[in-house]
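Can anyone check this?
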Amino acid sequence: SVQLRSITSMMDFRPGKYGHGAAKREIFLYTVHSISRGCERGKIFPHPACSRKGFDSILFDMSIITRTGDEGETGLWSGERISKDDIRVEAYGTIDELSSALGMARHLCFQDEVLYAIDDIQRLLFRVAGELASVGIPFDRPITGKDEEKIAEKTLAIEERVVLTGFVIPGMTAGSAALDLARTIARRAERRVITLSRREAVSSDLTRFLNRLSDYIFMLARLEEASAGKLTFA
């Protein structure tokens, strides 16, 4: 899969045998757009300019080792270069951390509903990261109010079945413990995004989504515990 937070830094946009650097970058970004919209691997929609320039397709022949970040900078999805300790990088990097934590939780949870939810959340997080890693070019699949509404509805649906009568002691099963860790990372990601929003514009749909997301993950953890008869209150 395409790692949105570094994909542009993997390409050399200097003039060369494939044409002017700016043209190469435009064609490449168009291709990333096509991938982010769900194109199958190996079936990339070429940029319209490809026919003019004699391209048959755009080939991705690159190593994970790029050396473009050796001086402490990284490339945004929209092409800009910024410092790796920039709050924007910290924000979408924490989203990456959250997705990785959810990946671990998947292997420790047993409820099908929870497993499907984890997969859905991870796919949504790619969109969150893509939006946060975009400045000069708007991300084409931003988080919307409908995304926030869906997870809010799912959270309420679990609350109707898993009634909470007090403060919960987290981590009473291996799966719920992993989800609770992911939940705290989600909260940290939200804090990083709020910090970013103090400096630059961030979609209110995105910040509301992150606020709802940690609640959703909390209830998924409680569902795992309740299903195992291990939901415990302080």
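Reply from J.R.: I decoded it. The chain has a mean pLDDT of 82.
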